[in-house]
């Protein structure tokens, strides 16, 4: 494993700037490996430079929307080549319909590249996250925001984070792109998958070559199901599991620890606009809304708390914040900015130990019988039930309460006995205030997810409202009595 090197004192630290060093010092070492093959650092550096020269020859604009059709390894070469040329690379999603792709393309800046050498604060990447207007929100990043994140990750999580990384997700998801680039920046390399496979990811991990696994909760749950179904032996080579992208059901942390007995299991909280915010070692006894202590370069403020409760909007200040949005005009879910501070509209508070607790997203808050309910809190309680794998909480119109609390759930594959509505309500009432208990419950056979592996709550909400309005419940929604 290479030592983490400081940036060259004569050159600015850029996302791609260490590739030349690794090509010289460990050119034969594997940089990227996938099912399609592998590429060493020396060849990667050559191909990246060739792509950069080709863009120059073609007089490509300052921002280049990447072609999603080649295999992932080729897409990474093209991304790095775009960045090495001094341009900004925009990464779309292969799942976008043509109409969305065309709308995004219309918002991409076609300004000619000015041929200026990149600086740490030059934009290098535009990623996209879901928006409320039907058009994905593009968030723009400069080099320094990610090189700071790389260094912070290694400083916080130590040697395993500087090892070869298994990042089994799409490059259109900023979490996985970050993992891929971290492995190339550290010189340890990265292993990727063209399409996520739980069996394939476990087979890679079992080889002992990837001490660091970056995953979203849905992937880990599939890996656990596969390992338990096949009665796989524990995987000893993984020493660090980094979980982010969605809330992790901590009741399953002991299962992850049993599967990866040598690993430190870490949850971290952040956003596409902020990078790292807070982290904690995962443990089943932690409060559900606790996301952990702030990273050491992150300042936090909670604004708008009242005497009735400590929760307010969480504002973040750090060297890792995004630059701005692309194509997000009139979207009410965009982050709030106040000078050096950014708020992604999450609500929460700092506890007596200085740890951050997040109660939910402002846009998802429900008011029932005059009281505030954050769906994330109830979803965490539901998902802690041994028979429930996933949950999505919504409000249905109710003349007396304002909204009636309803929940969609997906049964766990290994559930031995399915509970009734009354059973689930008793489970919730023993853990929450009574008004937070769901009054109606549906089991959902087809669980929609976003491209990044998160539950698609808006899609589930629309389906539920349509089904209840017409009294014609879709065949994949089964009322739980």
Write a concise synopsis of the structure shown.
This protein has two domains: 19-359, Rossmann fold (3-Layer(aba) Sandwich), CATH 3.40.50.12780; 365-479, 2-Layer Sandwich (GMP Synthetase, Chain A, domain 3). It is 28% helix and 27% strand.
Outline the structure in words.
- The protein is an alpha/beta fold and 481 residues long.
- It folds into two domains: 341 residues, 3-Layer(aba) Sandwich (Rossmann fold), CATH 3.40.50; 115 residues, ANL, C-terminal domain (GMP Synthetase, Chain A, domain 3).
- Helix content is 28%, strand content 27%.
- It has twelve helices and 26 strands.
- Strands 2-1-8-7-9-10-11-12-13-20-19-15-14 form a 13-stranded mixed beta sheet, with helices on both faces. Strands 3-4-5-6-16 form a five-stranded mixed beta sheet. The protein has a four-stranded mixed beta sheet with strand order 23-24-25-26, with helices on both faces.
- Helix 1 packs antiparallel against helix 2, helix 2 packs across helix 3 and helix 7 packs across helix 8.
- The protein is globular.
- The relative contact order is 0.09.
- The N terminus is likely disordered.
